[in-house]
Design a protein that fits this description.
This protein has 362 residues and is α+β, with helices and mostly antiparallel strands. It is built from 14 helices and nine strands.
């Protein structure tokens, strides 16, 4: 009996030793870093605690053990020295190299404030307004003009971005020109000014995608499911109603209702949204895959970056019997049940000099 107990004790001790050795080896390996890593750009906001910094480093693949890094920082008395700012780490960095950067870099980084308006596409649009051509700057042009990065590097960063996670995986396998069109949240951002345009473009894409992911809640996914649509389809619908609404965001839910009515009506074979006709013109050799006067249902993906109001409208359309709408030159909407009513309103607007004719083209 005593012999059995002794054997059990020895086995437990051996197991603990193996575990301790394994954990120690893991921490030592993580602390020492490695070679042939990849560069990762991250932002540490002002007021971020060491524990939060460690979690950010873990989430970005720079370290494996947040606990190990926290213990290291505490033992070395580095905790109070870490600064906020923008950093470029390497996934092969050691704890010491990471700490040195957090202590000596970051806080003095210059920033550029950039506003991406709701309804911005990645490419420029050309609007024809009563015969006058008006350029609507796309996200790529806005960033280049602001001095954040050049267009080519931004497009390359979009193409290299990983389509992973609950939201972005929905962009995979779609017959779109840009997989991430509609996934770059329109907002006012503060980007760090980097000398390397490629690094800056990558950081911009990551930040904009994270912003979109943070705005799409579990409740929104549930509403999309209840409507019978994927989130990719909701973003597509949201982008259409965003472009149709223009400055009138109060009408977004009613516009959404009109398009859902058309999708669900046997009297409409197509959605019939005019911005979808011209979206493809921003690409060479367009095959009309986005033209909702020719294709049935929704186009393969979003046409622009919709704002949160447009996304919510696509998820909660206003119920009505309307199938048509038109706007006057002041952006006011008129909704109708029949095409005859629509035509009558258009003629009335023309007769009173309150009509505006606009469309997008190359």
């Amino acid at each position: 009996m005593k012999k059995k107990i002794l054997i059990i004790i020895l086995c437990v001790v051996a197991f603990i030793l193996v575990a301790v050795i394994g954990i120690s080896a893991f921490f030592i390996s993580d602390m020492n870093g490695g070679k042939n890593g990849k560069e990762v750009q991250i932002e540490i906001k002002q007021g971020t605690y060491t524990a939060q910094i460690a979690e950010i480093l873990k989430d970005e693949g720079i370290i494996n053990s947040p606990l190990g890094f926290r213990v290291f920082a505490k033992l070395k008395k580095y905790e109070s020295k870490f600064k906020y700012g923008h950093y470029t780490f390497n996934t092969g960095d050691s704890y010491e190299e990471i700490a040195e950067k957090l202590i000596t870099q970051g806080a003095k980084a210059a920033t550029i404030k950039v506003t991406i308006p709701e309804g911005s596409g990645i490419n420029d649009f050309i609007k024809n307004v009563n015969g006058k051509q008006v350029t609507v700057a796309g996200i790529a042009s806005i960033l280049e003009k602001a001095g954040v990065c050049n267009k080519a590097d931004f497009i390359a960063a979009l193409e290299e971005a990983a389509l992973e996670g609950k939201l972005l995986s929905g962009a995979k396998g779609q017959n779109t020109y840009y997989a991430l069109e509609g996934y770059l949240f329109p907002e006012t951002y503060e980007f760090y000014k980097l000398e390397d345009s490629k690094s800056a473009a990558k950081a911009v894409v990551e930040k904009m995608l994270k912003e979109t992911e943070s705005r799409i809640t579990d409740d929104m996914y549930k509403k999309a499911e209840d409507l019978g649509y994927t989130m990719h389809e909701i973003l597509t619908m949201a982008s259409i109603i965003q472009m149709e609404a223009g400055i009138d965001t109060d009408s977004l839910p009613k516009i959404a209702g009109v398009f859902y009515n058309r999708l669900n009506s046997p009297n409409f074979t197509t959605l019939g949204s005019s911005p979808t006709i011209f979206y493809g013109d921003t690409f060479e050799q367009d095959d009309d895959r986005y033209d909702t006067y020719k294709v049935k249902g929704l186009p393969p993906g979003p046409l622009c970056s919709p704002g949160i109001k447009a996304i919510k409208a696509a998820l909660s359309p206003e119920g009505s019997d309307y199938f048509y709408f038109v706007t006057d030159k002041n952006g006011k909407f008129y909704f109708h049940k029949t095409y005859a009513e629509q035509t009558a309103t258009i003629n009335n607007l023309k007769n009173n000099g309150n009509w505006i004719y606009e469309y997008y083209n190359k």
